[in-house]
Structures are given as C-alpha cells and as structure tokens.
Amino acid sequence: MNVCVLGGSGFVGTELVIRLALAGHWVRVPTRNLTRAERLRVLDTVELRVANVHEPRILSQLFSACDAVVNLVGILNPRRGASFDAVHTELAAKVMAAARTAGVRRVLHVSALGADPRAPSRYLRSKAAAEARLRAAPRSELSHAEPAVTIFRPSVIFGPGDSLTNRFAGLLRLTLGCLPLARARARFAPICVFDVAEAMVRALGERASAGQTYELCGPQVMTLAEIVRLTARVARLPCRIVPLPDPLARLQGLAMGILPGKPFSLDNFRSLTLDSVCREDGCRRLGITPRPMLAVLPTYLEPRRPAAFA
C-alpha cells in the first residue's frame, strides 16, 4: 500500500512511518524541514518531500498514487500563523478534498480524547470540528472514490521523545524537585507511542476499520500527580508536588502562556478540567495489549541521583 503521512517527522509520525515501512508499505512524508526527518532517510521505502501541507494544490500532488493518507498534524497551543482552526479544522477539510481528487481510498486521522463541540477548551473544540469536516460529505456526493475515514482519539501519549514525561523530568530538574501543578487530580490513561502507531498500522490492514472511531488508552488510569511521581521515580529525581487551586492554576496558565514555546496556557488548563479516559476499548478492538508506563519509561528516562519522594 502507498501511504502519505502528514506529520510523519513528528513524535508519533516517526514511529508510524518506521512501522509502515517495516510492514512493507511505501511511505511518502512531506516536511518543511528535512533535518527533522533525518531518522527516516535510512528507510528504502520512505520518500521525503519538502512541502507546505496547508496548500491544497500541494496536497493533491502529495496524494497522487497514494492508497491511504494519515493526518497527524496538530498543535497544543496556537502560534503566529498557526491557529487551531487553520491547523486542525481547515487542514482536515483540505485533506479530505485533496484525497477525493487524488482517488485516495483511506483517510486516517488522529484527533484527541475529549474532542467535542461543547468542550471547555478551544483545542478540543477544534479537534471536534476537524472530525466533523472529515465526515461532512453529503450522501448525494458519495461515490466509489469517496475515501473511508478512520478516526483515532488517544489519551496522553508517552514514549521516547515525548513532551509529557520528558517535560516533567526537565521541570523537576529545573525546580529542584518542587513542582506547582495545575489540576493535579485530572485523570488520564497514558498510552505508549508504540501502541498508537501499531493501532494505525492494524487499522490500515482491516477493512472493518473503515468508518470507525477508536478511543486509545493505556492499561492504567492515573492522575496527573501520579504521572509526575512515576516520572520522578524512574528518573531518580526529587519530587514534591504542590497542587494548585484552580484560580492559581488559571493565573499560571495566563503567565506561562506568554512565555516562548508556551509551556502551559489557559487553554491547556481548560482541557485539563476534563478527564482523558476511554469510554470504549479501541486497543482491544484492534487486538492490541497496550504497554503500562512502568514497562517503557526506564528505556528512555535517564536516571539521576537517588532522591526522596513526596
């Protein structure tokens, strides 16, 4: 199968592209920066292309001769020239239109657990709007060439190179183990990047996955504080969590939202007011047994000096 992966040089995308190539698929990866995709150069069946995926004409060219398209493009916070609507909602519509034009049979799209038009955060509302755009074709327009859409809604994703456990480890080192934490009791079911990538590979190989939505969660439901403590334990870092009341957490989001890179924002806080846990077991439906955090974290979190834990 010929597959075009948008966001293929990112955290999830790199793992997905490697698995697709090893499974015998030919993979095209558009990127604005070839340096970011350096790991993929060694794969004979991966084609790297410098391209702006937000240009409809370019998308149609990228999808030429492809059987499937995977859209992994997403942002946690807007930045100059990249709003939630542009990156999530409008790009999804452009992907679907270009896929129709190119005769693509399958479109796989990564959304987010909690995506809902009534969600408290712009991030989650834009993810819901993207899903709606993918499903927006009127029945009268459907044809044999209409791409079948499969949507994935993962909880927070961890693994080598993640922005979850690595960020917390970095913050713990920076703050000498004392971490003011917003929404410390927010609940998640962290899923490993390997399992998210495997879910997409398996869905591509199963006709029954066409038109389906899969919620992807790991085997354990954990609070945000528990995730931080586990990260600290594995990395052997001191850890004292200071749970912030919501008014202070909002102020933290406002203050950190103006810093370079926006390590935390008010919109992130609003997303945290919803638990990120699955209502159905998408991994089981795809025959996947997800890995627990403790089985994976020691493979990439660098241990430091022994520490006391709170």
Describe the structure.
- With 310 residues, the chain is an alpha/beta fold.
- Helix 1 (11-22) links the parallel strand 1 (2-6) and strand 2.
- It is globular and about 55 Å long.
- The chain has two domains: 2-154, NAD(P)-binding Rossmann-like Domain (Rossmann fold); 165-187 and 220-277 and 291-299.
- The termini are far apart.
- It has a seven-stranded parallel β-sheet, sandwiched between helices.
- It has helices at 11-22, 56-62, 84-102, 122-134, 165-174, 193-204, 224-235, 246-256, 266-272, 282-285, 293-296; strands spanning 2-6, 26-31, 46-50, 68-71, 106-110, 148-154, 157-158, 178-182, 187-188, 191-192, 213-216, 222-223, 240-244.
- The longest helix is centred in the N-terminal third of the chain and has 19 residues, at 84-102.
- Helix 2 (56-62) crosses helix 3 (84-102), helix 5 (165-174) packs across helix 7 (224-235) and helix 8 packs antiparallel against helix 9 (266-272).
CATH architectural group of the largest domain: 3-Layer(aba) Sandwich
Strand order of the largest sheet: 3-2-1-4-5-6-11
Largest sheet: 7 strands, parallel
Distance between the termini: 51 Å
> Which structural class best describes the helix and strand composition?
alpha/beta
Proportion of β residues?
15-25%
Q: How many structurally independent domains?
A: 2
What is the 3D form? globular
Cα-atom radius of gyration = 20 Å
Mean pLDDT: 94
**CATH superfamily membership of the largest domain, which one?**
NAD(P)-binding Rossmann-like Domain
CATH topology of the largest domain: Rossmann fold
Helix content: 25-40%
Q: What is the class of the largest domain in the CATH system?
A: Alpha Beta
SSE ordering: EHEEHEHEHEEHEEEHEEHEHHHH
